[in-house]
Design brief:
This protein has 92 residues and is α+β, with helices and mostly antiparallel strands. The chain is built from 3 helices and 3 strands. A 3-stranded mixed β-sheet has the order 1-3-2. The longest helix has 22 residues.
Length: 92
């Protein structure tokens, strides 16, 4: 289950202030780059005074095993064909 990251001391709500923002970051845990980017966006959002909550959700964790397996196998095929194409190798 995703964890909501809350500011420790969110600013008090006053009629003059807008309500604090709640941010949802959707990411796909298919590599360290995606996770690092999501963490950087979360950190930057929490540094703002107008943000109260940030929730990072890995959409692959929420999807079915079948979908994750198909995505993983499809990615491998895509990379193998891209590399073979760059090397001028025709795959059969």
């Amino acid at each position: 289950m995703p964890t909501i990251h809350r500011r420790r001391n969110p600013p008090a709500h006053t009629p003059e202030r807008h309500p604090q923002e709640r941010i949802l970051i959707l990411s796909a845990g298919v590599g360290a780059g995606h996770n690092t980017a999501a963490a950087a966006v979360k950190q930057a959002a929490l540094a703002r005074d107008d943000v109260e909550d940030v929730l990072v959700v890995d959409v692959l964790e929420q999807s079915s095993t079948l979908y994750r397996d198909l995505l993983g196998k499809g990615y491998v095929v895509l990379v193998e064909n891209a590399v073979a194409g760059r090397l001028g190798v025709r795959r059969q």
